[in-house]
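Severity: low
Component: inverse-folding endpoint
Summary: output formatting inconsistent between runs
Steps to reproduce: submit the following structure tokens with default settings.
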């Protein structure tokens, strides 16, 4: 990838995802969930092009914890009954606790992407840092959030489709 290329599909996908998260309250929840699902799909297909061969690192994505919790809470309130889900770990634990949360998935992905977008604004050096940050963050952290969220959004879409289908 050319470090000067601001038109890389991943950058557009990251900007689109962050924009949807930032403006979630101005959307209909069902339409927003469909749009955010499309944005996650774009992120997933574009991240492959950012993968850089590098030795394992200790990726650290720091976010202001108050801002992260504030976003998480706003998303949780917005998503209502569509937020919580059974994660794979919950199913294996068998303790009856549901710990999956779309709000948590979206907030973690958002802050990882936003940090990279801020780095990107620093020119050529920032672009290299952003690409590395996104690739390492995906590998070490937000990949599982993306996979879990996409799975839940697929199930949500299936439920919507079955509730809208005519009964014989």
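Observed output (run 2 of 3):
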């Amino acid at each position: 990838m050319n470090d000067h290329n601001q038109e890389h599909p991943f950058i557009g996908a990251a900007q689109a995802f962050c924009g949807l998260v930032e403006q979630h309250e101005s959307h209909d929840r069902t339409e927003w969930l469909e749009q955010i699902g499309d944005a996650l799909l774009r992120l997933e297909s574009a991240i492959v092009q950012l993968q850089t061969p590098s030795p394992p690192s200790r990726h650290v994505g720091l976010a202001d914890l108050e801002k992260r919790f504030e976003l998480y809470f706003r998303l949780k309130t917005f998503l209502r009954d569509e937020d919580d889900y059974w994660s794979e770990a919950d199913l294996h634990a068998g303790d009856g606790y549901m710990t999956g949360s779309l709000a948590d998935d979206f907030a973690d992905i958002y802050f990882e992407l936003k940090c990279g977008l801020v780095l990107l604004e620093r020119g050529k050096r920032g672009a290299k840092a952003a690409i590395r940050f996104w690739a390492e963050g995906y590998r070490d952290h937000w990949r599982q959030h993306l996979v879990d969220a996409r799975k839940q959004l697929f199930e949500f879409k299936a439920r919507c489709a079955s509730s809208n289908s005519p009964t014989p």
